[in-house]
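The records we work with from here on pair a chain with its fold. These numbers are not coordinates but entries in a learned vocabulary of local backbone shapes. To see the layout at work, look at the sequence and tokens printed below:
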Amino acid sequence: MGDSRVVLRRRGTYRTRCNRIRKVKTPGGKLVVQYIKKTGKIPRCGDTGHLLNGVAAVRPKELAKLSKPKKSVTRIYGGCLSAGAVRSRIIRAFLIEEKQIVKKALKSQKGGK
């Protein structure tokens, strides 16, 4: 994990993902360890699994500190679903509504005869 010249600052000594280090030389000439933070993943659409544009890729703790515009986009289901998924939902709802109207019209025509 580490170099024999540096002293680790945390208790965990195993070479895990959360224990990644970077060796840095200070202005005083001392070699110290800096821990590298884990990178966040870009959120994905719940329906299609596509990456969501306009949403910051940060760790959950940092996500709570971010401002609202960085966490979502100004659209219905913005920050949760992709634009394509929202579009298909709207079209599906519209077609279901149309189908019901046609069904009702056919029923009234049949009843009138």
Observations:
- The first strand starts at residue 21 and ends at 25.
